[in-house]
Amino acid sequence: MNFEVELETLRAIVTAFILLYLWRMGRHERQHKGWRLVLAGFSLILFGSLLDITDNFPGLNQYVVIGKTHTEAFLEKVVGYLGGFIVLFFGFTRWFPYITRLRSTEAELQQKTVELESTVLSRTENLLQKTAELELELHLRKQAQADLRIAAIAFESQEGMIISDANQVILRVNKAFTRITGYGAEDAVGRNTAILKSGRQDAMFYQAMWQSLNRDKYWQGEIWNRRKNGEVFPEWLSITAVTDDVGQVTHYVAAFSDITLQKQAEEIIHNLAFYDPLTNLPNRRMLQDRLQHVFSSSERHQRHGAVLFIDLDNFKELNDTKGHNIGDLLLIEVAARLQTCVRTDDTVARLGGDEFVIVLNDLHAEAEQAAFQADAIAEKIRAAINQPCALQGHEYHGAPSIGICLFRGNDITLDELLKRADTAMYEAKRSGRNAIRFFDPATHAAMEARIALEVDLRRAVPEKQLRLYYQMQVDRRGRILGAEVLLRWQHPERGLVPPMEFIPLAEETGLILPIGHWVLETACAKLKAWESDPVTRHLQIAVNVSARQFRHPHFVEQVCAVLEQTAIDPGKLKLELTESLVLDNIGDTITKMQALKDIGVGFSMDDFGTGYSSLAYLSQLPLEQVKIDQSFVRNITVKPGDAVIVQTIIGMANNLGLNVIAEGVETQEQRDFLERNGCPAFQGYLFGKPVPVEAFEISLQEAPAHSRRSAGVSATRDAAKLRQQRAC
Question: Where do the domains of the chain lie, and which CATH numbers do they carry?
Answer without folding.
Answer: 2-148 (no CATH), 160-264 (3.30.450.20), 276-439 (3.30.70.270), 463-727 (3.20.20.450)
